[in-house]
Amino acid sequence: MLKVRLGIIGCGSITKHRHAPEAKSNENVDLVAVCDNNLINAEKVAKMFDVPKVYADYETMLNEEKPDAVVVAAPNCIHADATIKALKAGAHVLCEKPMATTIDECKKMVDTAKETGKFLMIAHNQRFNKAHIKAKQIIQSGELGRVLSFKTTFGHGGPESWSSDKPDTWFFHKEKATFGSMGDLGVHKIDLMRFLLGEEFVEAAAFVTTLAKRYPNGELIDVDDNAVCILKTQSGAIGTVTASWTYPGSEDNSTIIYCEKGSITLYGDPRFSMIIRYANGQKAYFELDTMQTNEKQTKSGVMDEFINSILTNTPPKISGEEGLKTMKVVFACFESAKTGKVVKIDY
Ligand SMILES: NC(=O)c1ccc[n+]([C@@H]2O[C@H](COP(=O)([O-])OP(=O)(O)OC[C@H]3O[C@@H](n4cnc5c(N)ncnc54)[C@H](O)[C@@H]3O)[C@@H](O)[C@H]2O)c1
């Protein structure tokens, strides 16, 4: 079988820890080129993963290499432009989250994928965690009855120690990131809840704020570092999504789903990735996998799914359309935070 010739745009931490190693470990991938406008970062990744070509500019990489597929793993402000150019250059695209910085950009990405006949997948890796997959099956089976409410959280100490852009990371600058903790972490949990519940959110109310993160000059950063959102689904279930860059000490990446006949706790226990607590007092414990953290990366499965989509000519499940639906909820939360009103979400 012919290998998929892959190029990567953005050679920062997510490429080093996830995309490049997962590409190298997939026998159907030939990682032909990497690109970073900071050539030192591109060269480091090329050396680490034995990549023959490096580029400082993605248009040149697309024109010269004509890759079959591209990963977009650069700052958020680059996602739409790089994705659209890559699709137009004939490549399938795996784009990092948050999908893009406006709804218009997201729509253009979806439209370009349709026009070019190429696949667009968004890297919502939380859908691949084993306990999340198992919980979805349990919810779908109806054995716990209807989902009534939930709470889901993704918080850690912030991206500044993770980002390869030091000492003043792009994650803290609105013109490059657009969003703070909400677009970095909240987006994962909104997408996860859409996946787990199998329905859309129709209303949002949120506080999205900046409490503590500062630039080296002491001023507060111009993107959010904390967000608490209340969401309502089509069927009337309600719950909270919390995102934070100011949790000291350790990460919280947990979810609890409260159903009529019991609750499901996901990644809330260091040993058991899923615990079901039944209404009659019984409990069931599952040791399925561990959640990746910035410090402890495990294989996400995102690259294998993307490559499998291409090789089997099957549209990716986490398509651009899925990414767009998740982003509509993110934007509704920002609108609610700005206006102080509950926002209805149209699809
Ligand atoms: N799925 C996840 O769990 C996850 C985790 C971390 C980051 N991400 C996403 O991945 C993307 C990259 O994040 P990161 O953590 O690797 O950031 P990072 O700061 O470590 O690296 C960003 C890299 O992009 C490069 N870059 C900047 N402008 C560029 C351009 N025009 N062309 C090519 N490269 C350019 C920078 O030089 C840097 O090397 C972000 O969108 C982020 O939200 C996703």
TrEMBL record:
Gfo/Idh/MocA-like oxidoreductase N-terminal domain ranges (all copies): 5-124
Entry keywords, A to Z: Oxidoreductase
Signal peptide: none
Gene3D superfamilies, per database record: Dihydrodipicolinate Reductase, domain 2, NAD(P)-binding Rossmann-like Domain
Organism domain of life: Bacteria
GO molecular function: nucleotide binding; oxidoreductase activity
GFO/IDH/MocA-like oxidoreductase domain location: 133-264
Protein name: Gfo/Idh/MocA family oxidoreductase
Organism: Caldicellulosiruptor changbaiensis
